[in-house]
Each structure stands twice: as structure tokens, then as C-alpha cells.
Design brief:
The chain is α+β, with helices and mostly antiparallel strands and 315 residues long. The protein is built from five helices and eleven strands; from the N terminus they run αββαββαβαβββββαβ.
């Protein structure tokens, strides 16, 4: 039986993971995938009518990124980080995304494609799962508003992850919860390589390090990314983010690792608006989840949102 102190510690981890997951990517918005991802634990079918459970099924998926927005059976993308060896890898958005945006994200559906068995944190705690589900229940159909920024670089338009991550986390929490966000150098994306290749000193990198005002920190790496060819003003892309959450006080609780795929589908609407969809797919991680091998690299939680962006400087 887990003690109250341990449960509270675990819930703190997963609440932070939930906020981060909700605010991923173009994340303008909302509660994240509830289902099974032990780290997210989720809004379950007992709470949301839109939450659906399905048995373990086929593993085939389409090669098109856009099609991954429609399938409930998703396999974790292969790791691509480090395959180019240029030191400035990134997910590049269409040119029309450059600039600052007033964004709204609305949760429309949450699914647990492998069943509720996988909910409950690293050790499958139903107490932790229930606390997280209760928190998530408050966000269904809620519109979360925040600012987002995308930067034009010599390599293409990229997300300003440091700016956006702070904006998302504070917006989802409803208050200022972030003490600092900084970029971190890794082999796949580092300042020296960016500058050597013709980039700027302030170009966004792909790895971020967040310190919260509470006793916690989180480091996020992009371990896979890709995109479909731009079709006029329609664009789809994805990235697979690995986040490590750790307490920064004297608590001996081990770090928690989560893997979340962020799938975007964007459509330019006139000169100052973009509409789209955002899907968050949660996968189990061998370092944190006892049911990792049983999940067989399939998404255990899928959460869908609508996106609406308007240029901040537009009327």
C-alpha cells in the first residue's frame, strides 16, 4: 500500500506531466491524453462521454502523418534524432507560421485505445489515476488562451520552445508556475553547430530545461520528428518528445520519464489566421512503466484538440 506522502509526490509528478502534455507543440490548449499513459493517467470513460476504450487491436498505421490524426491504433515513431549529424535538427513549420499568435486550443476527444488497464502511474496506482482524472475532467471543452511564437531562421521556421513552454504552462495552470526556461545543448541541436552552419546566437534549439516555482524540474528532448510535403496552405507534422521530470528538493522519489507524440494539422485561413488540429499520443517508457512491454510501442492515450490562431498584431 502506498503511503499518503508517496501518493502526493506521485500526483505532483503526474500533474506537472499533465500540464506539460496539454501544452505541447502548438499547444494552445487543453487537457491531455488521459488514457493509459501512466504518467498522464487521464480522464477516464467513467468521467467523459467522449472517452472511448477499445481492445488491443491491429498495429498497422498509415505512412502519412495527417492520417495519424484519424487512427486510434498508433505505433510509436522510430527515433530520428542524430540521423543527420548536422547539430541543428528541428521540426520546420510552414513559412506562414512565422510570428506571434494569439492561440486557443479546445479539447474535443480523449481515448484509451488499449483499455484502462494501463492507467495508474509507474506502479498502476488507482489513487493517483483518480486524482489525475478528476483534474482533467475540469478541462473538457474548455478553451485555453495563450501566446505562441514561431521564429524564422536561416534553416526554416521553428517553434520558440522556451517562450511557448512558459506561456503554455502558465496558461494551463491559470497562474505563473514557471521560474525559468532555458535551451540546452545536445548533439542533435546545439548552439555551436547552429552558428557554424549560418544560424544566429538566439535561434531556438530543440531541448529545453524548465525549473518550476515548486520543487520540480523537467527536461524535454525531441527524439523524432517529420512532416508531410506542404500542400498549398495545408501542412501536417509531428514530433516525439521525451520528458524527464524530477523533484529538486530532498525527496528521494525517482525521476519520471514520459514519451509524447505531438501531431499537427494546420491550414492557413487568410493572411492572419490559422486553423488546425492537434493530437497528443502518449506512449509508455521502459524506464518508468511496468507495462511497457505489454503495450508493444502502441499509444496508450490519445487526446484530440481543435486549434485556432490569430496573429497578435492583426486587427
Amino acid at each position: 500500500m502506498l503511503t499518503t506522502a508517496v501518493l502526493d509526490c506521485l500526483f505532483f509528478f503526474f500533474l506537472i506531466a499533465t500540464l506539460l502534455g496539454q501544452s505541447y507543440g502548438l499547444n494552445v490548449g487543453q487537457s491531455q491524453s488521459t488514457s493509459l499513459s501512466r504518467r498522464k493517467f487521464v480522464e477516464s470513460s467513467t468521467i467523459f462521454g467522449v472517452v472511448t476504450l477499445s481492445p488491443r487491436g491491429a498495429t498497422a498505421t498509415s505512412s502519412s502523418i495527417a492520417d495519424r490524426l484519424d487512427s486510434d491504433i498508433l505505433k510509436q515513431p522510430p527515433i530520428t534524432a542524430g540521423t543527420k549529424f548536422n547539430g541543428h535538427e528541428n521540426l520546420y513549420f510552414p513559412d506562414y507560421m512565422a510570428g506571434e499568435w494569439d492561440a486557443i486550443q479546445t479539447l474535443v476527444s480523449t481515448k484509451a485505445p488499449l483499455g484502462l488497464k494501463f492507467i495508474g502511474g509507474p506502479n498502476g496506482s488507482l489513487d493517483v489515476a483518480q486524482k489525475t482524472m478528476d483534474e482533467q475532467a475540469k478541462r473538457l471543452n474548455e478553451q485555453v488562451k495563450l501566446k505562441l511564437r514561431f521564429v524564422e531562421t536561416n534553416f526554416g521556421v521553428v517553434e520558440d520552445r522556451a517562450f511557448n513552454l512558459r506561456s503554455r504552462l502558465d496558461a494551463f495552470a491559470g497562474k505563473s508556475v514557471v521560474a525559468s526556461v532555458n535551451y540546452a545543448d545536445v548533439k542533435e541541436s546545439n548552439r555551436a553547430s547552429v552558428v557554424a552552419a549560418g544560424g544566429k546566437e538566439d535561434d531556438p534549439l530543440t531541448t529545453t530545461l524548465v525549473y518550476f516555482k515548486g520543487p520540480a524540474a523537467q527536461k524535454t528532448f525531441v527524439i523524432s520528428h517529420g512532416q508531410d510535403p506542404l500542400d498549398r496552405d495545408e501542412w501536417s507534422g509531428y514530433e516525439l518528445d521525451r520528458s524527464i521530470f524530477a523533484l529538486t528538493n530532498n525527496n528521494i522519489a525517482p525521476p519520471v520519464t514520459t514519451d509524447t507524440e505531438v501531431i499537427y494539422s494546420l491550414s492557413k485561413v487568410g493572411g492572419d489566421r490559422v486553423e488546425g488540429k492537434l493530437r497528443l499520443a502518449g506512449y509508455l517508457n521502459p524506464q518508468s512503466d511496468s507495462l511497457y512491454f505489454e503495450a508493444q510501442n502502441r499509444a496508450v492515450s490519445i487526446t484530440d484538440y481543435t486549434l485556432s490562431l490569430k496573429r497578435s498584431d492583426s486587427n
